[in-house]
Specification:
The chain is α/β, with parallel strands linked by helices and 199 residues long. The protein has helices spanning 13-25, 36-46, 55-63, 102-109, 116-126, 142-153, 172-187; strands at residues 2-7, 29-34, 72-77, 94-100, 131-135, 157-158. The chain has a six-stranded parallel β-sheet, sandwiched between helices. Helix 1 links the parallel strand 1 and strand 2 (29-34). It is globular and about 40 Å long. It binds flavin mononucleotide.
Amino acid sequence: MRIVAAVTGASGAIYAVRFLKACLELGVRVELVVSDYGHRLLIEECGLNLKAETIEAWLDRTYGPGRPRTGSITRHGEGEMGADIASGSQRWDAMVVVPCSMKTLSGIAHGSASNLVERASDVTLKERRPLVLVPRETPLNLIQLDNLRKAAEAGAAIVPAMPAFYQHPRTLEDLADFIAGRVLALLGVEHDLFEPWKG
Ligand SMILES: Cc1cc2nc3c(=O)[nH]c(=O)nc-3n(C[C@H](O)[C@H](O)[C@H](O)COP(=O)(O)O)c2cc1C
């Protein structure tokens, strides 16, 4: 499976790194776009500076080697409008924006295509491929709510960064894995990041 993953400048960088960790361990090929503010939030919240370190090295340093990594991550800059994932003639199966800032949400809802995150989202929608957005902001104003509605009407699945507590999470990673797992399920990737509710 080949997916596009975008990381933007909303709080919740841990959602991105836990999602990418799972993709690497589940054999998913990831085309990764990190916005400028996405870079900043990865540094501020996770201590991951992608200009100095790979995600794989950061994962080793933070969590140990873990499971074998059969997936891959290919990086693209947010300004690279000539990247292959800017064109619908390229094949990818689905896209996720995790976390998704209100600014990027607005760009997607209005079809701005002003950077590679927005353009790849635009292409994903026009090619009728699954697009999952993980917005994070609180409280939400009417413009933001309207942009969420617009994106949903255009075909995006909205997975707010709202982890559940019925799994009795013990760590921040448990909370983030709940959201990563919900995203993977929408992308059609089987995972064991949390136990399904059994009633
Ligand atoms: C520390 C920090 C935290 C932020 N948290 C959020 C947030 O949770 N949600 C949001 O929509 N924007 C947040 N922002 C603002 C966005 O980063 C800003 O709107 C930026 O232009 C988004 O650009 P991007 O979508 O291209 O990454 C935050 C900014 C900073 C510096």
